[in-house]
Amino acid sequence: MANFYTDNPSLRHHLHHPLMKRIVELKERGFADKNSYDYAPIDFEDAMDSYEKVLEIVGEICGEIIAPNAEGVDHEGPSVANGRVTYASGTQRNLEAVRQAGLMGIAMPRRYNGLNFPIVPYIMAADLVSRADAGFENLWGLQDCAETLYEFGSEDQRQRYIPRVCAGETMSMDLTEPDAGSDLQSVMLKANYSETDGCWYLNGVKRFITNGDADIHLVLARSEEGTKDGRGLSMFIYDKRNGGVNVRRIENKMGIKGSPTCELVFKNAKAELCGDRKLGLIKYVMALMNGARLGIMAQAVGLSEAAYREAYAYALDRKQFGKAIIEFPAIAEIIALMRAKADASRSMLYETARFVDVYKALEDISKERKLTPEERQELKKYSKLADAFTPMGKGMTTEFANQNAYDAIQVHGGSGFMKDYACERIYRDARITNIYEGTTQLQVVAAIRHVTTGTYLNRIREYQEIEYKPELEPLKQKLDAMTEKYSQLVAKVTEAKDPEYIDFHARRLVEAGAHCVFGYLLLQDANTDESFRRSAEVYIHYGQAEVDKIESFIDHFDREDLAYYRQK
């Protein structure tokens, strides 16, 4: 039987990272739930065993149900009639499988019927689902919206909504509008409070809403009359049971076709405020988007893995000039780099997920008791690292997913252009990953301050201090040299104190830093698991060449050259 967890040993490697001991300790609060829930772990080993078993179930569902349904879902897609969406038949079977397996709301606390899993195994499940069908991940993964309900909703709202998600109801986040894409402070959907009814009513239009006919919606709306910026926006919960929202149309998309992307019309839709007024964008959506970006990283990693496996299998099987095409150096190079990019992306994904796990758990504990000074420092450290690694990771892993999807088709040649092969669908599905939840360009905007303030360089220095095996020393020396070049490039670009000049080179600086980070993460993997050695070698050679190109561009670029790139 196909199992997408057990057939990929690198997942278990990342699941058993040393930091998981601390993560489980924080998440389980001394394993107090063992006295109230028979499925709660009694110790660290029991918790890890539970994660393993659930991931094996996810892997089996992905290999036996979701992946075989992917092609049919891609062709059939969802439909809309009378304002309601009907999923493709394969999507319905997928949803039924994950509901029956209890895989909805797995990161939610047990008191709301969740499994209380940390972010790492939850994101690992998203990685698996995305490899099987990236479109279905957009439905399954939106259960992460429940995290926003948990963090910012009232206890009454948590009690009413989160168990429904854990039971299998779906969610959506309704942010974008026809005139408000990345610029969410321009949102104009109106929220009016009725003193008579004692509730809020929403009116307006939302566009590009993933899973727009979900059971429970988080809606960004303008609650403050006369405002035009982010300070007038609040977050609301809309329950489909109350009516008032219809799907006007489903977008006809290039890829992820199983996921209905909807235009919604709100007509006096009854809703309730989530959290405080005026903090919808400033606080709640920012938190929601960071979680969503981690999910898109997982989607990108799953797609990179799928693309690599399709290309590798085809290259082994396809014969030309009397031998398998993988024996030709031009194809072997592509395949090796695809594997390295997939492995590097996965290492970055789980490094980021661990940072998020620690700071989220400490934030949650701070609502129950006062943190110790050491815990406050730990919270500050990991919150900063999560804030830095999320945009770098989202930007780079999604670009790599697109590159791997492109290369998978190239390895297939003319066959890859045909719908007979999965790489054609993977190519279309990957294209959205570096666009939604913030384009790569917006990720650079978020990441550049961590370049200029030294967050990335300081972390890289910590990676340098790790003791590596003697046989890995040549690779470490290459990374050390890359790091010094990166440090010098940052100094050169920032010393002029010219914001426009820094912004122009921001992408190059973020990428140079990312190649150092990704290289060190793979070196750490190879330090504990020999199977990562080849990917580390390939990626570090690749990263070295990329940093050299960046250095050459910046060295030969004068600030006066900016005029060539300005719009006339």
What does this structure look like?
With 568 residues, this protein is α+β, with helices and mostly antiparallel strands. Helices cover 58% and strands 11% of the residues. It is built from 18 helices and eleven strands. The strands form three sheets. Strands 3, 4, 5, 6, 7, 8 and 9 form a seven-stranded mixed sheet that branches. Strands 1-2 form a two-stranded antiparallel sheet. Strands 10-11 form a two-stranded antiparallel sheet. Strand 1 and strand 2 form a beta hairpin. The longest helix has 40 residues. The radius of gyration is 24 Å and the shape is globular. The mean pLDDT is 96.
Mean pLDDT across residues:
96
Order of helices and strands: HHHEEHHHHHEEEEEEEHEEHHHHHHHHH
Unreliable parts: none
Strand content: 5-15%
Report the helical percentage: 55-70%
Number of helices: 18
Write the layout of secondary structure elements.
Blueprint: H1 9-15, H2 20-28, H3 44-76, E1 79-81, E2 84-86, H4 89-100, H5 119-132, H6 134-140, H7 145-152, H8 155-166, E3 171-174, E4 190-194, E5 199-210, E6 216-222, E7 233-239, E8 245-250, E9 261-274, H9 280-317, E10 319-320, E11 323-324, H10 329-366, H11 373-412, H12 422-430, H13 440-452, H14 455-464, H15 473-494, H16 499-528, H17 533-555, H18 562-565
Parallel strand pairs: 3-6
Antiparallel strand pairs: 1-2, 4-5, 5-9, 6-7, 7-9, 8-9, 10-11
